[in-house]
């Protein structure tokens, strides 16, 4: 008997497709249009071809911003992933404290990005900020608006405070999915704490950790609001990451063609790395399924 398929379900998906078309596809096509043309206003466009892409690839400014962005994302991942796993391992597994810890870990994630930047901007000020005033009282010369190192430390600590909870919660969910029989077998075999983590907990967390790494990479690579509010990309261009540089180019200088080409290359880099993470995740899932 031939199996029939009901295609009426596509009508339920149609509103989502329309919404995605208006919110993603159409703006993307507009950016592509600007990336191959030049305009002097009055809705007049002149064909430029790949000129803006060539200009961006030869731009030292873009490569410098990309270097700062890669360094920032690498530092963020190197700190937040191990720290999040460590926090998840030490969170209670049973009792009333589970709910308390989950609520406390969720609080930073509920704060809007611009508010996070404002909080740390005030927090780090020497005159009225708790952090800045305390460091000044201890004799530490701290000024995130004038010192490059201080600006980087402030932005990194701010991001770690804001987003480590996400990694911790995902890792905790992975730990909770481990059956108690695994731990009982480890106790019978007198396995060490490191052996339990290496051969039981880490493999079971690997799937959620890859999701955490993917989410944190995409967010850190596109970060804009927090460092812009705190440092404005300064001092100088010390914290001018790709997103900040792109906004300055598009809105500050009104170089729409180069900015459009810049944004497309920016998008392709994020898409490529995300595809790599997705491929690794699916490979791990297949190995676990065997």
Account of the 3D structure:
The chain has 290 residues and is mainly alpha-helical. The protein has a single domain (60-289), classed as MetI-like fold (Orthogonal Bundle). The protein is 74% helix and 2% strand. It is built from twelve helices and two strands, in the order H-E-E-H-H-H-H-H-H-H-H-H-H-H. It has helices spanning 10-35, 51-57, 60-90, 96-110, 113-123, 130-137, 148-176, 180-188, 193-221, 225-230, 242-252, 256-289; strands at residues 37-39, 45-47. It has a two-stranded antiparallel ribbon with strand order 1-2. Helix 1 (10-35) packs across helix 12, helix 2 (51-57) packs across helix 12 and helix 4 runs antiparallel to helix 7 (148-176). The radius of gyration is 24 Å and the shape is globular.
């Amino acid at each position: 008997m031939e199996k029939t398929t009901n295609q009426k379900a596509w009508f339920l998906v149609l509103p989502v497709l329309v919404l995605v078309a208006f919110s993603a596809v159409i703006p993307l096509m507009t950016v592509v249009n600007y990336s191959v043309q030049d305009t002097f206003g009055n809705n007049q466009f002149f064909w430029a071809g790949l000129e803006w892409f060539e200009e961006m690839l030869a731009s030292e400014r873009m490569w410098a911003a990309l270097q700062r962005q890669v360094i920032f994302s690498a530092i963020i991942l190197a700190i937040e992933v191990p720290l999040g796993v460590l926090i998840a391992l030490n969170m209670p597994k049973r009792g009333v404290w589970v709910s308390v810890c989950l609520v406390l870990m969720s609080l930073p994630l509920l704060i809007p990005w611009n508010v996070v930047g404002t909080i740390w901007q005030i927090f780090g000020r020497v005159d009225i900020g708790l952090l800045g005033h305390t460091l000044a009282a201890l004799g530490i010369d701290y000024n995130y608006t004038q010192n490059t190192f201080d600006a980087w430390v402030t932005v990194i600590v701010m991001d770690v405070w804001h987003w480590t909870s996400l990694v911790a919660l995902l890792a905790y969910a992975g730990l909770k999915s481990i059956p108690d029989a695994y731990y009982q077998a480890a106790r019978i075999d007198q396995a060490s704490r490191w052996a339990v983590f290496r051969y039981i907990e880490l493999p079971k967390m690997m799937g959620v950790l890859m999701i955490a790494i993917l989410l944190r990479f995409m967010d850190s690579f596109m970060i804009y609001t927090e460092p812009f509010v705190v440092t404005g990309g300064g001092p100088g261009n010390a914290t001018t990451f790709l997103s900040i540089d792109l906004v300055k180019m598009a809105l500050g200088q009104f170089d729409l063609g180069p900015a459009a080409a810049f944004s497309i290359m920016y998008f392709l880099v994020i898409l490529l790395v995300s595809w790599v993470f997705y491929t690794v995740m699916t490979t791990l899932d297949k190995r676990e399924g065997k």
